[in-house]
Amino acid sequence: MNPPDDFLRWSQEITQTLEDFLHRHLPSPSIAPRRLHEAMRYAVLDGGKRVRPLLVFAAGELSGAPRDALQVVAASVELIHAYSLAHDDLPAMDNDVLRRGKPTCHVRFGEAHALLAGDTLQSLAFQWLSEFPLHPDPARQLAMIRQLAVASGSRGMGGGQAIDLESTGSLLSLPELEAMHLKKTGALIRTAILLGASCGPPLSSEEERHLAGCANALGLAYQVVDDVLDAEMDTATLGKTAGKDAAANKATYAGIMGTKQAKDFSRELLRTARESLELFGPRRRRLEELADFIVNRRS
After folding, report:
1. Bridge partners of 102?
2. Mean pLDDT taken over the chain
């Protein structure tokens, strides 16, 4: 199923807004330390589907959030994602050589600069969140910074990656696999959605509860689909090494459930996400379209 033309135009416009912001605000490669700044820009610019930034903007429509705040949050979330990829690809982690259709950061710049690029991208994300005005209430902005920090740390993405490393070669149960991926992949996707909505006027407690349900379902669905694509698609299509999870003897949804059942599970999660959004009425349009894209994508 192809996304509607209007959604494609919207996503292209948002992606271009993000790229423009990143080009302007990432450190220039003409400024020392030049090689580090080159590596930072290489890890972030001109690649990827930008799903997390799109989720920020789509969720912002639920609360009527201003675009200036959304672009800062979207860019900051993307820096966290890019830093995690630069680190995950290192020989000490997944030892991958291809990302977003080009050599990984450590292949292009060496392991030391890839490590430093990830470190400094993470720092820059929190610098942006703290120095740009995101919300009239300073306490609300501080809570948003904390939310991204938790999602990035041991209770979120970092912790999920640690569990993934520790469990390689082990037979995980489905609940254990779900718990790992709600941290490793789901935490940042969930936070992108919640931060986007937080840039606008407060939602009601019922709206917050429904949005959290949608965010949890989409965070897990993204990983389920990733596992299926890793098993079914080729490297050229994915832009990263295909079949690497099976080669590394990692637990995946496709491996435990089989690809057909994993696909069915992703569609169940999509239904959950869509049902959670119903009370938002027409405001849910972009987030609903993104949910469809996440589950039906082919790369």
Report:
1. 99
2. 94
